[in-house]
Amino acid sequence: MSDAICSAKGCRAAAEWVLAWNNPKIHQPERRKTWVACEEHREHLSQFLGVRGFLKDVVPLREWEER
Fold first, then answer.
1. What are the CA-CA distances from residue 16 to residues 6, 23, 24, 42, 55 (Å)?
2. What is the DSSP letter of 15?
3. What predicted TM-score, i.e. pTM, was given to this entire model?
4. Residue 66: which pLDDT band, with cuts at 50, 70 and 90?
5. Which superkingdom is the protein from (predicted)?
6. What residues pair up with 5 in beta bridges, in sequence order?
7. Which of 35, 38, 54, 58 could form an SS bridge with 21, CB 3.0 to 4.6 Å?
């Protein structure tokens, strides 16, 4: 995932963060989907998921890759 590109629409910057999330209406509680974000879009994407109650964790990409 080290070549990951930010998930924000139209952004082509290298991702630095992993936003782990799930939609409790359709996913099992332990399931984690991921978006990746550059520094500029981390807060915006986190807020988007957080308002919906989907955001579970925000982790630096390097740390996520080591899991």
1. 8, 23, 26, 9, 17
2. P
3. 0.90
4. confident
5. Bacteria
6. 14
7. 54
